[in-house]
Amino acid sequence: MYDLVVKGGRVVDPGQGLDGAMDIGVSGGRIAAVEAAIDDADAARVIDVGGRVVIPGMIDLHVHFIQGAGTPGVNEIAVPPDLAGVQSGVTTLLDAGTTGAWNYGVYLHHVANSAKTRLLSMLNIGKFGIPGQALGKPEIYTPEDVDLDATIRLADQYSEHVRGVKVRLVGPALFSMGADLIRLAKEAAREAKLPLMAHVGDIIGFDERAQDLTRTLLQEMEEGDILTHVCTSMPGGILDANGKVLPELREAEANGAVFDPAHGRSNFNFDIANRLAQQDFHPTTISTDLTLNGRKGPIHSLTETMSKFMAVGYTMEQTVRMVTEAPAKALGMQDRLGAIAVGREADLSIIEELNGKWRFQDSQGNPFTGEKALRPVHTVRAGELIPLEWGPHPWGWQPAEA
Ligand SMILES: [Zn+2]
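Above: inputs. Below: predicted complex with zinc ion.
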């Protein structure tokens, strides 16, 4: 009767308040039953996940997986989608603006249907997307680098793929264009009826004035807009000179903005993450900003990034919410993603929580330790059991031992 029964695991779905021993029956690619003990006598396949945690398919809200849309730069070092996705225990990925309106065709024709992972993307407001991040170059120098009409038209035409508009607040446009940069991106997002995802942290100009524009951005943010790199220590971050959360951040929080960490090779600072938590300010989601280079370190994987937030003090259940229900809502797809419920497409992540003494590094190379770690064990995407890749470390998926 079932194509697959996932048996004996602890089901944790914080969005629905589920936490307990349950079996999950899958048929026709959909969840057919979530019950205490499913009769698996007729099941085509049964996997025993005793001692493991079964959660809704994980969503990584900030990845760069659109490869080959330009040379050189982040387009070349983008991670193959299934490597960041189903082979890492993650069932849905959002590309955070690797391409823009003028080269989005690369995604549509060469990437969108190349993976088992569910792929979604943001259109960069820079018309060619991020061309040369590896060379430290921005996508926007002048307003000529933005094609507002084409951005809005594409977002409308490919609404199944496009989930938002991305802007990076980095030099030199940060100052030559100033608030116009935010205004243009916000206009595109508003016209397309999509969220704006704004990158803070001036990883190109390293200009200390960047925070002025972050304040402007926070004032412009509406419900559902996403601030990405919330734990950055780069100029333009969200703590003032005294280490206090900017008042504008609280306003944006009250207005329903989404705060995404997007680890990256530059933008997760352990001290900042702790300072935010101490001031009772918490990221909404957890994401990696993964590229091939970042996979080698310090990011490694989504589960390792979750483990780092557990070192800050978040519980496993809290980190699970931040990669399931919370990003599903940020994508406006909470009716389809981020929950284990009968009738939904069967996207499941089976993970393991490990006790020990684990050694991590933030983006600045600062070492820290934690007592909990998560690793992926199995991925079920649309009912199909998909094998994991070996893992980002020589020994596999778990973080380094301290
Ligand atoms: Zn990014």
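The domain at 58-330 is CATH 3.20.20.140 (TIM Barrel).
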